[in-house]
Amino acid sequence: MLNMDHEDAIKMFLLLHHSLNAQPDQITYVSALSACGNLRLIQLGRSIHALMEKSSAGLDLMARNALITMYFRCSDPTSSELVFRTIKDHNLCSWNCMISGFAQNKNGVLCACSQQGNLRYGREVHGYAIKAGVQANSFISSALLDMYSKCGRLDVSIQVFNNSSEKSIAFWNSMISAFGLHGHGEKAISIFTTMTQLGIQPTKSTFIALLSACSHSGLVDEGCRHYNLMKEVFGFEPCIEHNVCMVDMLGKAGKISEACNFVQKFSSRAEPGTWGAILSSCTDHANLEIGKSVAENLFCLEPDNIGYYITLSNLYACNGMWSKAEEVRSLVYDRGLMKPTGRSLSTL
User: Fold this and answer.
1) Domain extent at residue 148
2) Where does the record place its PPR repeats (predicted)?
3) Model confidence, pTM
């Protein structure tokens, strides 16, 4: 439904609720909860949840499944899980709601496995998805592809991609990112070419993945070509993420002066992200002259960003200037900036 349809559904529900002659049934609750989820009206959704619990519809499985979906769409997976636990006899739809919801939320279980590189648990989730018959869901397939890629199993990511009958744009983007992450920039470009030949329109996220792949693979000429294609053929105005990818790509190739010129020419305003990428490249190539100038600029733009101080300190260290490196690190404490304590998680 369109937003206006969702709003109308909520208005009708409220009229029905205040009517003395009629009471909402499970179908009414499902429609109202769906509208709340699509409009991200979590407070109203909670109110409807409370009303539902006081009626016979509170025990209806279809209505409780709608509650799960509503909370997920409102970015409250904790409430979704609490509702799921109150269901005594889960049906296939209940499991589908949970798995799809977790896959679509950034704090979902597959995303957690990806971030931790936990292949064992990722495989278990994949197994549950197969048992529930939802592995073909585009959100889940995309999350599985991403998980296997970040856990070092590009081969399985490719299998997931090839076995999927329905490929959403997010799915194509994930495959491009996977190839890029593993340094296969040419294959990422090939996937992009195939996608566009099939008539699938790329998004801004597609070009972020593609430019990042070119950066990881050192494909400077191809990266520049696709950056121009993005603007001239597909009509996208570059955002800061695109510019950071370009600066990172030029910097990794040792073309730091070109990266500075790019920022000054194409960046409409002083963007800390792009200058930060140049500073990192200066450290990688021990370019003290440009690095010092860029760091001074960043200290003006974001004086409390501890990362810039640490990067400049590392740059001095790369050039054997240990006293200068220590001097910059001392500024971190003098200005009340503290580096967050690092933590790691080990699977036993």
Assistant:
1) 91-166
2) 168-202
3) 0.66
